[in-house]
Amino acid sequence: MLTDFKKHIDKFAQVSDEEFDEIQKFFDIKNVAKKENLLEEGQLCRHHYFVLEGLLRKFYINEKGIEQTTEFAIETWWMTDNIAYEHKIPSEFYIQAVEKSKILYITQDNQEMLLKAFPIMERYFRFVYQRAYAAAQMRVKYLFSLSKEEFYFQSVNRYPEFAQRIPQYLLASFLGFTPEYLSEIRKKRIS
Amino acid sequence: MLTDFKKHIDKFAQVSDEEFDEIQKFFDIKNVAKKENLLEEGQLCRHHYFVLEGLLRKFYINEKGIEQTTEFAIETWWMTDNIAYEHKIPSEFYIQAVEKSKILYITQDNQEMLLKAFPIMERYFRFVYQRAYAAAQMRVKYLFSLSKEEFYFQSVNRYPEFAQRIPQYLLASFLGFTPEYLSEIRKKRIS
Questions:
Q1: What crossing angle do the helices spanning A179-190 and A168-175 adopt, rounded to 10°?
Q2: CB-based contact (8 Å) between A144 and chain B?
Q3: What CDD domains does the annotation carry (chains A, B) (predicted)?
Q4: Is residue A176 scored above 80 in pLDDT?
Q5: Res. B133: pLDDT tops 70
Q6: Preferred mutation among A11, A61, A133 to probe B, highest tally of B CBs within 10 A
Q7: CB-CB contact of B48 with B108 (8 Å)
Q8: Which residues of A touch B142 (CB under 8 A)?
Q9: What is the value of ipTM here, to two decimals?
Q10: What angle (nearest 5°) sits at the alpha carbon of residue A13, between those of residues A7 and A15?
Q11: Does A28 touch chain B (CB under 8 A)?
């Protein structure tokens, strides 16, 4: 199970098996049930989550009382409320398991201790954040440049493994439209 | 001038004056005129830019031929097309000086050499990307949750130094509306 985490580190930084044995001690593992919340609005955001198995989503509840999904994370993706996590402040978000999931997690204090003890992990996390930031920048471009319909089909084409696993009503929420609208444009494309 | 860069590093990582003398050799400085392009669509994105003095913006030209601004950077902010820079591929963006500016910049190869020679800079860039990613995540939330009008007034209130320096037509573009609409909501607020 943790071999997937080791493999992910190996993509960006060189860590020996002996070092990895020490590194993994900074983390814990948690099994979460489908629809279980790892974080709720108003709670201090204490953890950074790495998906070993399963699927997480991040959402907030808007002024109409509706859950607005802003992000998903599948295997080998990291997820947290980064501002709340770094500054140890209450979160405006929920993080919830979409499927039964197995999650590796670390506290902010442990992450800081890990980085002091194994500076090579700065390189690993630098790449993690760099890639996540680059993806977020492209997302802003797409939010401006693509119609909702184009954005949906591009998301499905670029991330087919997502589109198959994510319930349609959550995908609709992530894309910023109603399940009815999503069902309409899918029918249009098929016909 | 470079003391501002040194101060910015000091916020996140400890670097001695002797180390900084070596670190700065990996960078070059460029003076750019107002409206000069540092990067154009279709060019390989070779540089990562740090604003010493002035103001940059990033934009792309949409299918209607209109410049859509997606980002600004003022003093001590980094800017590049991160995907194109990391993968050394042609960019879909322009990066342009909004004001006469003084820019510190580094190539991707030099940044990689710098990180090998001074691993402490991994920590610095990890923080740079972590904060930028956190800000981008909040921006996605605001794009969903705020009306265009709320987003405008929130941006002006949170970043008054931006609102004063950025020409109104560029601010309108960044917020995704026309200069006419911006002028309308500003009048409404004043009256």
A1: 100
A2: yes
A3: CAP_ED
A4: no
A5: yes
A6: A133
A7: yes
A8: none
A9: 0.91
A10: 70
A11: no
Contact B54, B102 (CB under 8 A): yes
Q: Quick one: which of A9, A42, A44 has its CA closest to A23? A: A9
Please give the angle made by the CA atoms of A2, A4 and A16, to the nearest 5 degrees: 75
Most confident stretch, B95-99, B157-161, B177-181: B95-99
Q: What is the pLDDT of residue B63?
A: 86
In the numeric block, which tokens belong to residue A32? Answer: 């979460």
Backbone angles phi, psi at B14, to 5 degrees: -95, 115
Residue for token digits 């993690």? A128
CB contact under 8 A, A176 and B144: yes
Which chain A residue has the Cα nearest residue B64? Answer: A145
Q: The tokens of B184 are what? A: 């309308």
Q: Does A112 touch chain B (CB under 8 A)?
A: no
Helix H or strand E segment including B50: strand B47-53
b/e for A28-67, b at 16 or more Cβ within 10 A?
eeeebeeeeebbeeebebbbbbbbbebbbbbbbeeeeeee
Mean per-residue pLDDT, A152-179:
83
CA A174, distance to chain mean position in Å, is: 13
Q: Inform me whether the pLDDT recorded for B191 exceeds 70.
A: no
Does B62 touch chain A if contact means CB atoms closer than 8 Å?
A: yes
| Chain A hits for B133, Cβ within 8 Å | 82, 129, 132-133, 136
Averaged over B15-26, what is the pLDDT?
A: 97
What confidence tens digit (pLDDT) does each residue in A6-48 have? 999 999 999 999 999 999 999 999 999 999 999 999 999 999 9
Give the torsion through C-alpha atoms of A105, A108, A110, A116, to 10 deg. 130
Contacts of A169 (CB under 8 A, 6+ apart): A179
**CA B21 to each of CA A52, A124, B17, B126: distance values in angstroms, whole numbers, following the listed order:** 43, 26, 6, 21
User: What stretches of A33-179 adopt beta strand conformation (E)?
Assistant: 37-39, 47-53, 56-61, 67-73, 78-79, 94-97, 101-107
Mean pLDDT, range A72-84, rounded to an integer: 95
